[in-house]
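Lab notebook: predicted structure, single chain.

Context: the supervisor wants predicted structures on file for every construct in the current expression panel, including those that have not yet been purified. This is the next one on the list. No modifications to the sequence; it matches the entry in the shared construct table.
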Amino acid sequence: MRGIFTNLTIAATLLAIVASACGGGTAPGATTITATPAPTPTDRFAAMDQAVLEAEARKEGQVVVYSFTSRIAAVKKAFEEKYPGITVNATDISSTEQITRIKAEQESGNVKVDVAYISDIPVVFGELVQKGWLANYVPSSFKARVPKQYQEPLLANRLSTKVLMYNEQAHPSGPPVSNLWELTEARWKAKVVMVDPLVRGDYLDLMTEIVLRSDEMAKAYEAHFKKPIALGSGVKTAGEQWIRDLYKNDVILAKSTDVVNAAVGKTGQASPPVGFTTYSDRRDNAKNGWALQVANTVTPAPGISFPAVFGVTKGAPHPAAARLLITFMMGDETPTGGPGFAPFYVPGDYAVRTDIQAQKDAIPFAEFRAWPIDAAKSFARRQEVNDLILKLK
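Prediction complete. Output recorded below exactly as produced.
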């Protein structure tokens, strides 16, 4: 993953934060993305009438999707109920695993998957889109309701997160930390949990963004310790120093987000750890006996937000059904997006459609302090951060 983009420009800028939450007529402000991917054949489905698309999809009879979230099971059920006769063959695998599989399928010419529902956009945009292995499809009915930055180079349906979470049962007054640098202190030794960034790309994106935000990390250091940061030998930035100090403080590396959620969120703990995980996972608090909550007030930021995107694979075996599934997952005309969007209409996920109502049991996006990741800058730096973490383990 070394290097920079070739013939791909992804300009990322933080939009002015609007006065209301995501949805309900106001788009979330975050990464602005423009791109010129590798040339692809004209998409004959681009202007196709929905009824014609459905008819072609029914002839294909199935669609194969890789999804970075287990919520694809609910999508499968809802889609098959709406379109009987079209089977959704869904595989729940991480974005990192998806990238590996898609590369192998494309290089071998044995393409099995039709749709990738995926995050880890630095690699997705910088490699898979650039090589023409994933193509964009934007249903015409959504072009006026999705901000341009979420239509290119791949269409997104929501923003996901990797943020610092805590146990609100154990800390009813709010987050037990106010500054990320506290996590490097003795009080939190062996009490910070996250998925290994060398295993899951989204967590490597988190670490990379912290390095990219080194100016803010340096200011946060000075605010907490009341003195300017002094970098260690061979350390170039405040973000790198924070990563080194976190690992030195025995950060606990888990194999999955579920492990992190249980460790942090399990109720009945007197002194639970904190951890970096997905904000929307608190939807499972009641079901799993968790008390997860986001540490939104932490300085300089609680973590990152990033788009969850759709890509149609080059040589997709079921191209019409692939596009029908994407259209379905973008939601229907109801204020909450209906069955296709229902698995993602939860507190902690932010719809990119301007006509989706905001979730009431969540921090309004205007007040959500996570950093939107810069895909191009992250792609250029993430191997360096990967190598740093490898040396620290």
